[in-house]
Design goal:
There is one protein chain. It is built from 4 helices and 4 strands; from the N terminus they run H-H-H-E-H-E-E-E. It has helices at residues 2-20, 24-29, 44-49, 78-86, and strands at residues 67-74, 96-103, 117-123, 130-136. The termini are far apart.
Amino acid sequence: MKFTTLFAVVAAATVSVSAGAATNADRMARGLPPLPPVRRAPTAVGAARRAAPSSTPGPTCSTGPVQCCNSVTHASDPVASLLAGLLGLVLGADVAVGITCSPLSIIGVGGTSCSSQTVCCDNNNFNGVIAIGCTPIPSESPNG
């Protein structure tokens, strides 16, 4: 009788341990349906990850629209000097110049990306060929 009781206790313990630790793969191998996903209470970290992004504005420029230039150099650069000469501009050698620039508002989808240099320029009146007096705007993301 002691053996039967001991056997029954061991068998019950084995069944309860194996049934509680069954994965969905084990259940499906035995022909049973998978268990539903476990719903856990949200944590403070989980809630923080799902919060809405802040509404931080993009870069601004007081002299006109923010420009996206293929390159930014000084007026002493041969290409910048040639473009300035063709447009009849006389620039000091240390003036920062943007070459092949477009207003950021017409670049890309949504108008907020620049894969080159984002700048703020004093004079953008040359149809994007050249922009004069450019100051780089630090990008907040790898895409600009």
